[in-house]
Amino acid sequence: MNTFLTVILDGLIQASWLFVVALGLTLVFGVLKILNIAHGGFYALGAYLAATAVTMATAHKVPPGLGFILMLVSVALIAAAIGLLMERGLIKLFYGRDEVVLLLVTYAVFLIFEDATKLIWGVNPIYANQPYELFGNAEFAGLFYVGYDLMLIPLSAAIGFAVWFGLNRTTTGKIVTAVIHNAEMSASMGVKINRVYALAFAFGVMLAALAGGLTAPKISVQPGLSSEIIILSFAIVVIGGLGSVEGAAVGAILVGLARAASVHLLPQAELFMIYLIMAAVLMFRPEGLFRRETARRI
C-alpha cells in the first residue's frame, strides 16, 4: 500500500512541473504551429536565472519567502522579454516557410542556449536550495515529503487553471483560441495575427522558464537540463494532443506516474515506459488523447 501511495505522490510531483513545461510547448504549437525545439533551452534558462536570483537574495539577506516570490517574478518577466525579442527578431522572419525550416531554426536556438549557459554560468553545478527548505517537511498517510515538493502540485494546478480560464473566459484568450482553430479566418475578421503570435510565443517561453525556476531549488542546475526536458515535454504533448491544455495535463500525469512507477518498480524501464505509452496512444489516436476537431476537406 505504501509503495502504491509513494508512486502516486511521486508521479503527481513530477507531473506538476512537467505540466507547466508542456503547457508552454503546446500553447506555442497551437497558435504558431511550431514545434519549438528551443523550449528545453528556455526551461534551463529559467533554472539558471532562478539559481542566480536565489543566490543574490541570500547574499542581500532578503527574507526567504519574499526572495522566493521575487525569484518567480524575475524569471517570468525576463523569460517573457527574451521570448518576445526572439519571436519579433528571429521567428517572425520565417513565417510562411516550410515547417522543417522553422524546426531547424528553433534547434539552432537550442544549441545556442546550450553554449550560452555554459559561457555565462560555467559547467559546474549550481545549488540554490534555500526555497526548498522554506516549506519544511510534511506527512501524508504515513509518508514523509518535503513541503516544497507537495506545494508544486496545487501551484501547477493553479497555473493550469489560470491558463485555461484565460483562454476560455477572457476576450484576449478567446482571440488566441480563435487563432488556434483557424488563423486565416481570424485574420479576415480583423485579428492582428502577428500580435497574437508574439503574445503566445512570449507566454510559452515564460511558462517553460517558470517551470525551470520552480525545479531549480530541488535539483543541481547544470548543463544538460534542456536535453532531457525537451524529450519529456514532447512525449507529453504527443500523448495529450498538440495544442490542448487538457491534453497537456493528462499527458503530464501519465508520464509522471510512468516515471515514478518505473523508478520504484523497474528502474531500467523508465524511458521505455514513456515511449510505450506514447506508441500506444499514437497507434489508436494519432492526434493525441485530446485532439482538436478539424473541418474535413472534401
From TrEMBL:
GO molecular function: transmembrane transporter activity
Subcellular localization(s) per the UniProt record: Cell membrane
Pfam families named in the record: BPD_transp_2
BP GO annotations: amino acid transport
Top-level taxonomic group: Bacteria
Primary site of residence: membrane
Transmembrane segments: 12-35, 42-60, 66-88, 100-123, 143-167, 196-217, 229-258, 265-284
UniProt keyword annotations, A-Z: Amino-acid transport, Cell membrane, Membrane, Transmembrane, Transmembrane helix, Transport
Protein family per UniProt: Belongs to the binding-protein-dependent transport system permease family. LivHM subfamily.
Protein name: Branched-chain amino acid ABC transporter permease
Native organism: Afipia massiliensis
Top-level taxonomy: Bacteria, Pseudomonadati, Pseudomonadota, Alphaproteobacteria, Hyphomicrobiales
